[in-house]
Amino acid sequence: MKPMGSLRIQGFLFSLCALGAAAFFTCAGFQVGNFTGQSGLIILATLILLLGVPHGAFDTIFAYRLYDLRKPTDWMIFTMIYLLLAAVVVAFWWWAPMGFLILFLLISAAHFSGDPEEGTPHATRILYGGSVLLLPALLHSGEMARLFGLLVGDAPALLLVPWIKLIAWIWLPCVVLGVILLASSDWLGAMEIASVVLLSVAAPPLIAFTLFFCGMHSARHILRTIGYSGSLSRGLLALSALLPMIGVVVVSALAWWFLKGKSLDERLIQIVFVGLATLTVPHMALVERVRFSGWIKNSF
What we know:
Layout: H1 3-27, H2 33-36, H3 38-52, H4 54-57, H5 59-67, H6 72-95, H7 97-112, H8 122-134, H9 137-152, H10 154-183, H11 187-202, H12 205-228, H13 234-258, H14 264-292
Helix pairs in contact: 1-11, 1-12, 3-12, 3-14, 5-14, 6-7, 6-14, 7-8, 7-14, 8-10, 8-11, 9-10, 9-14, 10-11, 11-12
C-alpha cells in the first residue's frame, strides 16, 4: 500500500478511536483519578515508551540520508552531538524549570504541527499542534496543574496553568474555525483535527496525550519514515531502531535510579516528559528538514 493511502487509513482509525474516547469520558463522567493514579501512570508511561518513543529511534535513517554517515567515526560524532543536545535540555530542566516547561510546550506544538497532510494551511497546523497541550486546561486545569507540578514543581505549575487556560479559551474557537474551513477541501484532515480537539477537551490530560502521541503522532511518523526510506527493507528499518531504543531503555533505568529519592509519580512523569523533551530537540533538528522538503521518497 502506498504511504499516502496508509496515512489516510491511520488517520481515519485514529479519529474513530479519539472520538470514541472523547464520547466515553463525556457521557460516562469517568473519574480522572481512576486512570491517573499510580497504576494508571505506569500503564500510560509504558504505552508512551513502547508505542510512542520508537518513532524517534528512526532518527538514524534520517541522519544516514541527510549527512551521508557511513564511517564509524561519522556515527560517533553524530551520536555525541545528539547526546549533547539532549544533555543541554536536561540541564535546562534542572536549572530553570519554568523556562523548560514553556519551551517544551512551544517546541512540542511546533513539532506536532507537522502531522497534518500536505496542503493543510499553516495556521490550522499550528492550532492543531497546540490543541493537545492547551485545551485540556479548559475542563481539567486542576489535573494539568498536578501533572506539571510533578514535572517542574508546584509553584511554576500553579503560575503557568491559569495562563494556559486563558489561551485555551481563545484557542478553541480558532481551531474550530480552522476545522470548518478545512472541511470543504479535506474532510478527513478536518476529522483528524476535530477528533484531537474533542479528545483534548473531554479526556484527562495524560490519557489524551498518550492516545494522541501513540495513535497519531508516532504512528504517522513511522508510516512516513517507511515511505521515506524507499528500498530499505523492513528488517533493516527495525534493526536501525533497535540500538537507539536500547539506549533509551538504559538511560531510563539510570534516570529511575538517579531519581530514587522522589515519589513514584514524580519519577514516572519526569522520566517520561523530560525524556521526551531531550529526544524532541535533536529529533526535530533532523526530521523538520525532511518535513519542509515534503517527505520526498529516497532510495537507499
